[in-house]
Write a structure and sequence with these properties.
six-stranded mixed sheet; alpha+beta
Length: about 475
């Protein structure tokens, strides 16, 4: 029956049924950054998610939380209290469509097929990913007549704006959301061809550095050499934080070591952006680490924007202000609450007391990581390998960020993520896309995984 469930999931792809459903959802511009799209996000939950989940025997409840960008949908199907309970997660919102920047012949709101790829906003982030999981769940139900486990599912509509309200919601509904494991899908595989599991996420903290030197600009001929240039001063401050080859110089921002289990699983992972991605530069980042260790096991500091004067129309004047928008992607072992205090101490020690710092937004995603030796990891690896005849890559955490700390710390769940994208997918950019072959394989491996959750040997906590 396991093979039948997998075949049924493949059939939804081969018949065009899955594509039709996904195309309808892609056509809904659920941009959570745009307040005018609030009705569309409501419709995505009410018209797309609720009917599908109710049709699979789930009880659905729409939840609200102050400050959230839109509704949360909680769905549950409880078959027997003694069975394992699996918590699923997805988000129905997408980033802005950036309509004018898509290449000719493509639209963010039209699922378009070209050269074995599906294009559209949300095909990987995240509509396509939770659509795959729901279709795989349905294939198991139709094959077995039941899931064989208890399922709870949460769909939010504000992930692309930092998941406002999700943390408070999970605290309030902690008992209702109680489960044995989170199995979700977001982010990319290690590469398009290799199924992947990741066990947490790097933390993400956005902050700003700036210097307000004086009230206005002053002619560089009259004042050059007499008054400070905040652009130069801020550049030197940033250079004190990170070296010329990308090595971080603040000890509190990096872990003391990489655990042996993390090094072991990453030794089997080769990082590549594929034909469409950038080439890995071996000279950049922490020396002595492999590329996989640098992106999945270490901290990265990035300057995402830098402003001084008027870049579009420079004038002969010393600017009064310089500003940098920065980001730290950090791993387990780094205290997110200490990032700014450590930076302040570092700047003061190096003579940059004029540099001001502050958080760019209130929300911070903390770093999480399930131990690669955890029983749920071995179980998931075995299931995926049996379904695909491929050894999945195991990443201790995603290089990017998700609100995984909410699930691992507040709900206290082991977290196993099975992504259905790849690094070159143009996520958060024009021309977002996914390979058709990856979608088909993902449908089958998720059907196998959900089927195995109803079989003996699942490492859940009884009761």
């Amino acid at each position: 029956m396991r093979n039948q469930a997998i075949a049924r999931a493949y059939a939804t792809f081969d018949s065009g049924q899955f594509k039709t459903v996904l195309a309808r959802r892609i056509a809904m511009p659920t941009e959570s950054q745009n307040p005018a799209r609030a009705p569309v996000m409501e419709a995505y939950i009410a018209d797309e998610m609720v009917p599908e989940l109710v049709g699979m025997g789930f009880t659905c409840t729409t939840l609200r939380e102050p400050g959230a960008k839109g509704p949360f949908l909680f769905a549950e199907r409880i078959e027997n209290a003694s069975l394992p309970t699996v918590f699923g997660y997805g988000h129905g919102d997408v980033i802005r469509g950036q309509d004018a920047q898509w290449r000719e012949g493509l639209s963010p709101w039209v699922l378009t097929e070209e050269n074995g790829l599906w294009y559209g906003r949300g095909v990987v982030d995240n509509k396509g990913q939770h659509a795959i999981n729901l279709a795989a769940l349905k294939a198991v139900l139709e094959t077995r007549g039941k899931l064989g486990f208890n399922a709870k599912y949460l769909i939010e509509t504000g992930e692309e704006t930092g998941s406002p309200g999700l943390r408070a919601l999970c605290r309030r509904e902690r008992e209702r959301f109680r489960a044995d494991v989170l199995i979700g899908s977001d982010g990319p595989r290690l590469n398009a061809e290799r199924p992947t599991i990741f066990l947490g996420t790097r933390g993400a903290f956005a902050f700003e550095m700036w210097i307000d030197a004086r009230a206005g600009s002053h002619h560089s001929g009259n004042w050059g050499g007499l008054i400070s240039n905040p652009g130069v001063e801020l550049a030197h401050a940033i250079a004190s934080v990170i070296g010329p080859t990308g090595q971080i110089r603040i000890p509190e921002w990096v872990p003391a070591e990489l655990p042996a289990s993390v090094r072991r699983v990453l030794a089997d992972c080769e990082v590549s952006g594929g034909a469409d991605g950038p080439e890995v530069e071996p000279w950049w980042g922490e020396p002595g680490l492999s590329p996989a260790e640098r992106v999945f096991g270490w901290t990265a500091f990035e300057v995402l924007a830098y402003a001084c004067g008027n870049p579009d129309a420079p004038v002969n004047a010393i600017p009064p202000r310089a500003f940098a928008h920065c980001q730290l992607r950090f791993v387990v072992g780094v205290d997110g609450d200490e990032i700014l205090p450590a930076l302040r101490r570092h700047l003061d020690r190096h003579g940059f007391s004029r540099v001001q710092i502050g958080p760019a937004k209130d929300e911070i995603f903390h770093a999480t990581r399930l131990d690669p030796d955890h029983p749920w990891v071995a179980w998931a690896v075995d299931s995926i390998q049996r379904s695909t005849n491929k050894k999945p890559a195991v990443l201790p955490n995603l290089g990017g960020a998700l609100p995984n700390d909410i699930f691992s710390e507040i709900l206290e769940l082991p977290t196993v993520w099975v992504p259905h994208s790849y690094p070159g997918c143009s996520q958060h950019a024009p021309n977002e896309h996914v390979p058709k072959a990856l979608v088909r394989e993902a449908l089958g491996l998720m059907a196998g995984l959900y089927y195995d959750l109803g079989e003996p040997g699942v490492p859940h906590k009884a009761g």
